[in-house]
Write a structure and sequence with these properties.
Elements: E1 14-22, H1 26-36, H2 41-49, H3 56-72, E2 81-99, E3 105-121
Antiparallel strand pairs: 1-3, 2-3
Amino acid sequence: MSKTARPRGLADNEAQAIGRMIRISPQKLNLVAGGIRGMHVEKALAELSFSHRRIAGDVKKVLQSAIANAENNHGLDMDSLYVKEASVGKALVIKRFHPRARGRSGRVEKPFSHLTIVVREREETA
């Protein structure tokens, strides 16, 4: 009496990982995610390891999760993986108020983001 299983949304040679509720604005996260789009995973991990941006560590963690999903769940070869897609979505925004001069207050918005990374196995060209 259960529902039928949903078909897999990705191709057989793809795997993904999603990082939800990352405490940074989507615009700033997209700058880091855009830097690894289309890269080989080894090069992308090296790029994130030496990046000076604070959020690069969280992006690296999601990328490592996508690589682990590809290897363990789908049996893909890590040496031929590349970052097919790194998309950033908007999550909730926490609103806070900060006291300002003359009895007024200023609104402070603290945005959150979602990050989805899809890795794909590169086909061997003969």
